[in-house]
Sequence to fold (197 residues):
Amino acid sequence: MKNLNKVMILGVAMMAVSANAQFGAGSKKDFTMENGKSGGYFTYNPFTRASGGGSDANGYSFAVEKLIGTKENAEAILGFASARIDGSAWWQLSYRMYNSEDTSLQFGLYGGDGFGGKNDFSLTYWKDLPSQGEGAISLSAFAGLYRSGSDSKTDLSFGVKASYPLQNAVSIDATFWQLRRAGDSGNFLTVGVGYRF
Fold:
C-alpha cells in the first residue's frame, strides 16, 4: 500500500506538468543557446519530497547547470544541486558527458548533513526521449549505480525527468529518482520551474 501511495504521488506531480522528470535540465535540448543565451540552466523546486527509511519529508531544492561546448557540438554538462529537506541539507556535483545526441553518462558526487563525513557517488546513463512536436514535453529516463559511502554498498538507481516549456526561457520541471542509500530504499520527487540563461 505504501508503494501505491508513492506511485500516486508521482502520477499527480506528472499531471501537474501536463504529463504527456537529479534536479536540473530535462535534456540536451533544454540548453537553448539562441538569442544570446550562454547554455546555462537554473531550476528551483519549491516542492521536493524525500521518502525513505519509513518516513517522508518535504523541502526545496535548486540546481545550476552549464553546457560545455557549442550549440552545434555540445560535449558535456557541468552541474551543482542542493536541497534542504526537513532541516537537513545536502549537495550534488555532477559531470554529464554526451556520447551521442540523446545519450549521456553522468558522474555524481554527493555530501551534506547525514553523510557522516563520507561522500556518495553515482554513475548514471541518461536517455533523452523524443519530443512530439513544437512545445512538447521533454522527457529523459536515467538509470545507473549509486554507491553509499556510509555502508560502502552499491545499488541500482533510476528515475525520470520531464520539462514542459511555458515560453522560450521558462519551463515547468518534475523529477522522480529512486535510490538505495545506507541500507534504506528511498526516492526524491521534485516539481519546480526551470530557467535558461
